[in-house]
Amino acid sequence: MAKQQKVLLLTGPAPDGKFVIESRDVPHPGPGYILVEVRAAALNPVDWILRDMGLWIKEWPTILGTDAAGVVVELGEGVSNVAVGDRVMYMGTMVDKLTTFQQYNAVKADFVAKIPDSMTLEQASTIPLTVATAALGLYDKRQQPDGGLGLTPPWTEGGRGKYSGQSIFIAGGATGVGQHTIELAKMSGFSHIIATASLHNEAYLKSLGATHVLDRKLAASAIADAVKAVTDTPVTVAYDAVSDPALQNAMYDLLAPGGCLLRVGPSMIDPAKLEKGDKYVAHVFADVQLPAQIEVGRSLYAKLPEMLAAGDIKPTKLEVLPDGLAGVPAGLDRLKAGVSAVKFVVRPQETP
Ligand SMILES: NC(=O)c1ccc[n+]([C@@H]2O[C@H](COP(=O)([O-])OP(=O)(O)OC[C@H]3O[C@@H](n4cnc5c(N)ncnc54)[C@H](OP(=O)(O)O)[C@@H]3O)[C@@H](O)[C@H]2O)c1
């Protein structure tokens, strides 16, 4: 077993912080933990946001990265749900200061999902953070400041198909978060799954379960009119993966009384509208191990392998970047500049 590993360190906050590759000890998996050789790590917007803004980071240097897939190489005491050699995926968590731009991770065994044979490790690495954002947003209990909409998860008894006859509107259907929100909405049975995206993504989003795809370039008022034109079924759920002020307000207005809106970013809704209090708004913070939301996180991870194997949850399209961890900085610049329905993935073991 290797004693040292390569990690991608961010030396400090912007503008002076730099990414450097350094060696660090390979962690030891304590009781309940496993050691994973990280074979694929996906890049997410939060990585460049943290690089540029340093939010939440209390200690420097730091390692970023919130998505990984790899092979189990060692078991800590008491672990029985996975074996050495299993292929698993998992997300970073603030709870364990677990981040993934490195060659090995010690991970809590309860929060890994075995990967079906039909899926590559690179594909699997595209899923964890975004599926958690979609799932916690829709199904975590109603709580503030961070929580979900309190819907019944489709992987629990009585949840599958429960929302038949209702409509959901998703801003940003081609984001990784939006793609998994579409898949979960389909499992939940929503009759109309209406999403905004660039129209070149229409067929792809329909293959995931979207019933209608609206051009994201339309003005917010035109998008609202188009939603009303495609369904007279009340929109009971709205999921905002985009954070555009005009559109978030239009989404709130679209909701039927008693409807609910989930946002991944800040609230942009006119406070005067919120005063009426007839619609519920929540903000998701995607970490399946945070104590306040660990119940849904644990139940998601218990059923995720089945949902992956059944094809209910699919990987995002991806591009593998060269040079292992050394490829991350340029990848984050490209991600910040804008991508369309693709995730960038690095192979940490290929780091020069
Ligand atoms: N709160 C949390 O815990 C949490 C967790 C994860 C992510 N997030 C946030 O969620 C957002 C999505 O993250 P992600 O990783 O899923 O993003 P992503 O996959 O990198 O997003 C790329 C997609 O954004 C779409 N897009 C950009 N502007 C749009 C607009 N005005 N309308 C509709 N679609 C638009 C593009 O769609 P087209 O290609 O169709 O143009 C593109 O495919 C980010 O802001 C991220 O920071 C929050």
Automatic annotation (TrEMBL):
InterPro entries referenced in this protein's UniProt entry, alphabetically: ADH-like_C (IPR013149), ADH-like_N (IPR013154), ER (IPR020843), GroES-like_sf (IPR011032), NAD(P)-bd_dom_sf (IPR036291), Trans-enoyl_RdTase-like (IPR047122)
| Record-linked Pfam families | ADH_N, ADH_zinc_N
For this UniProt entry, the molecular function terms from Gene Ontology, in alphabetical order, are:
oxidoreductase activity, acting on NAD(P)H
**Domain (Enoyl reductase (ER)) ranges:** 17-346
Entries under CDD domains matching the protein: enoyl_reductase_like
The domain of life is Eukaryota
Q: What is this protein called?
A: Zinc-binding alcohol dehydrogenase family protein
State the organism of origin. Answer: Phanerochaete sordida
Q: Lineage in the entry?
A: Eukaryota, Fungi, Dikarya, Basidiomycota, Agaricomycotina
